[in-house]
Batch of 4 targets.
Target 1
Amino acid sequence: MLYHLSNKIIKAYLSQRFKRIERIRHHSTELQQKVLQELIQYTKDTQWGKTQELGALSAVKELGDALPISNYESIQPYIDRMLHGEANVLTPGITEYFAKSAGTTSGKSKFLPINKKMLQDNLIASSWESMATVYDRRPTAQSFQHKNLILGGSLEPYADYKQSIVGDVSAIMLHTMPGAGRPFYCPDFETALLPDWEEKIELIAQKASKANIVMIAGVPTWNLVLFQRILEITGKSNLLELWPNLRTYMHGGVGFEPYKEQFQKLLPTDDFDYMEIYNASEGYFSIQDTDADGMLLLTDHGIYYEFVPISEVDHSNPTILRLDQIEEGEKYAIVISTMAGLWRYMIGDTVQFVSKSPYRIKVVGRTQHYINVFGEEVIVGNTDQAIAEACLLTNTVVKEYTVGPIYMSEPGKGGHQWLIEFEKAPKSITEFELILDQKLQAINSDYEAKRYKDMALGQLKIQILPNGSFHKWLKSKGRISAQVKVPRLSNTRNYVNDLLSFVE
């Protein structure tokens, strides 16, 4: 009875909160100018702000050439000082939390500052907006009456300065969650923040199998590992047999298309909401506010957005566009300025605008995760879509995959090599290769042109990996966490060769 009342009260609050979503839908460009003005005022008296003369900028104009594009390497010296407790470096005061971004499976970790202002204005506020959207899409939702299952990361003191706390952004959000939300999440927060990933999966599976779960959230890759264990424990054939009230899955981190069929098998009902969010280590950027394609860009949540055309990502002086200058259908590298002290920071993701009224985006890849050895310009969005369509036509289910080039200098013609782990393998791998290749050509005209009469590229080749290969490979690298994803594409053979060596 008490929880029923709390759901009713919070539902009313979320209804009011949803007005902010409506405002974003209609006034994004004006809201962005207000965010930029606040960012300048908030940061201008920091050490970095004084060096860059932020106080001299006019918030009513674009940043122009006043500030350069930055990346992690260019601001790492500042972040190192913040990690060791120095105040007023990139942001006012001392920053306590740092989101640990794993990057690629072999790359070194990055530590992105998350100060109190960023927590309140972006991460916590965006979480409330996400829940407001859940209730707008499903007015009968019971997220604040029963339990929501979240699979997050872990936190630990920074090795060289124990007062600084580092970990996955999901763990920072759990650790700082307002008290009003904590009773409605499974597992308990002590279990949720455990550092040992396999121990955490087992404990969460045991606890969640006894709870009334109505919403789940997390990266699809790791959710599937957890669900498999839960079904083993309970003997159920799907999740709805265990959790009949489960109606929402909030997902992000990787493209959902390759996993969609697996989730539909686990959740055999049409009465279900799949809701994509875009929550990275650098910030919470967008949410899927309707069933329409794309996610609403959160333009009133402490982040100022700019965009670089994907064709100019590697230029020393690229074109930098404001939100009101972008074109629908074009692909851009996303550039952010945030309350956490990141200014004109290129995060490495590429997005495509599917709508300008309102501004909705979809993530189509990484600036460094693509294949363009032969001029084919294949991005993750292309391969995710192609593999989903090929699976549908062949009644096949793919668990994981990665793709690398076959160089022309090697025996035979150049092309692409796909390493795939199937949950349900095709009857004919030869037929699957042909269909996948045809789908990729239909999606990407550059790939199609290079495939013309096999002149530049031969048909793609697939090598099937044993079940569990990707998971074991990541584990061997010490890269088991909520933020680590399998690298889909690479312009080199590094991942492909490493995986093949590991499997052999």
Target 2
Amino acid sequence: MQRDQAKKLMEQTIPNKNLQKHMLACEACMRALAARFGEDVEAWGLAGLLHDLDYDQTVSDFGNHGRITAKMLEGTDVPAVIIHAIQAHPGHVAAESTMDFALYAVDPITGLIVAAALMHPTKKLASVDVGFVMKRYKEKRFAAGANREQIATCDRLGLGLEDFTGACLAAMQGISGELGL
């Protein structure tokens, strides 16, 4: 599946613009991490872009989150490694690959970064730096839905929390126009 096809599928399946922006942010972060690790940038980007395709269908049934997306992608040319990462990100199958671990950690960091940008006086990603995000990270009540334990699994990638946050922040700053920030 090409990126333009995946984006169209995402837009058709997910009507919520904020969720679409989250998926675009995850795509950007995954692409940046793939480049850093010398991995397949397109494949990693697709994993980020498609990972929440079933969110609306599973919002009240988290046990099937990722599983319905996998079924939606059956019979397409989406590689099995991407489908596995999508199923691993909510923790329903064991994370095995670097892509799996990356998507698991990327999913919540995007929310923390967006929340940090929205609380910044400028409300712009360009004004946010790693230190600003790390301060917010330490505030347990701030963006409480951004699971800190899940974010901290970035160490499985061989990245410290600040390096991981910096890579994701830079990736999101690169698409700030699409994110509206």
Target 3
Amino acid sequence: MNELLYGAAGLLLLTVAASLVRVLRGPTRADRMMGAQLSATAGVAVLMLLAQAQALPAVLDVALVLALLAALATVAFVKAASRDGAGDPEEEAP
């Protein structure tokens, strides 16, 4: 069973690598943020799989904190990228 969990974690790490390419290449800020969000989500999944495989319940707490930080980072991005602090960062100027 542990081999399956390690294999799934390895596949998710490939997803993280692909998302980091999107973070580096862009082309827009929203694309970069989506890449960062994907890497955070896959990182949470990897941590949860490894916690189960190695029977370390404390790693689940780390995964939950990472998930919370990823959500807050997305909110901060939208606030910082929009003109009025409450809108769509991709919206055109009036």
Target 4
Amino acid sequence: MDIAIIIIYTLALLIIFLYSLAQLNLLFNYLKSRKHSDDSVTFDFSKEEEIPYVTVQLPVYNELYVMDRLLDNIAELEYPKNKLEIQVLDDSTDESVISTATHIKKLQETGLDITHIRRENRVGFKAGALKEGLKIAKGEFFAIFDADFLPGKKWLLQTIPYFKDKKIGVVQTRWGHINRDYSMLTKIQAFALDFHFTMEQVGRNFKDHFINFNGTAGVWRKECIEDAGNWQGDTLTEDLDLSYRAQLKKWKFKYLEEVETPAELPVVISAARSQQFRWNKGAAENFQKLYWKLLKDKTVPLKTKFHSFFHLLNSSMFLLVLLVAVLSVPVMYIKNNNPLFSWYFNVIAFFALSTVIFFFCYWHTFKKIHGKGFWNFLEYIKMFFTFFSIAMGFSVHNSMAVLEGHFGKKSEFVRTPKFNIEALKGSWKENKYINKNISGNTILEAFLMGYFGFALYSAFALQDFGLFLFHIMLFLGFAFVFFKSVTSKF
């Protein structure tokens, strides 16, 4: 039994280490990209004949609290009105349908080309709505925004010009966060998303590795969508799915780090859970659907296959982290009760380098957003350990999503509730879309909180503090997720 535990523990640490090396390589790519100027060809919008027709698509479902804000914001986009249409792809089943229709009618009276498109059912969920809108759209290019996004007035003028290069199928922008400082929950979400949208997206895109359209705040070329097989609703992350299919068809993606598109982060843990579940399960589904096809494609460089492997398996790291965490307690007892393994524990100490690599990579993202300096570095240290602690607290929930994705269990596309909260004084308590149920995962999180409390006790009993910091982070992470999950129900 001891040998089996050590083998599984070591393999999990090894894969996490390889993942950290992939992240380190992306950091090197990111740093190299800072030294290169952008020489992309662009449309000259001073010439009317170079201004293409654009369709803005707004896929929405029961967005009572943010629809007015969304529609007013999109109506302010600066673009020639004779070459712009807006599709509100509304699958809603609540009273928001009536207020949305009323608002759209008022905007139509101003001369804006905006239509309210309704379906009889939600077949294909968001993918199905986008595909339905594509059939009747006038545009050559499709800008897509979820209901909680607020693009700046010049957003189309900043993105559309890059499509002069006929090989470019997608232009994606960086997400911003209008309520970053609302709570610790929003701060850690922003911390994680900043890393993805700064280092990962730039690091992959700079070396022509596969990146993903992030479901919103980006533009698609219609020809690219159709050539790649159109939107498909057989995974929970239709954006990642179409992105990989398009790049397998040799379409280029353009990532614009400097164009920020603000959005609202989930402020209650049940909303964050539903979003995390969809993203993590969808990534696993796409790994099963696409990676083997990519692996067999001889035209795709080996390094791109390597990065795509860890990109699609990104969410599966939660499963490995949970495995390492749970096994770390018996490993601690094996270490202290079996002297034969003493050499082994000296060897696996090498894998602590993974944490150093992550610390180094996240710091480069943090200082790009928040700036350098001693006090910012101290704030970063606090955020780094808080983020990883709470991320580990989410590992049970996210691991369940990953397992469902890999084993092909189908589930409904569960939307993330929006709150229209931008200021610290905003409240979510009366939001009608909040899930009030306590899941079985929450009970398991409570058990693991106690389990890692026992691990802290064991450190003193065995006088072995090698994993003490790791176990403190696990205990606090599961405690945070458990108590937030319970208290948000009342």
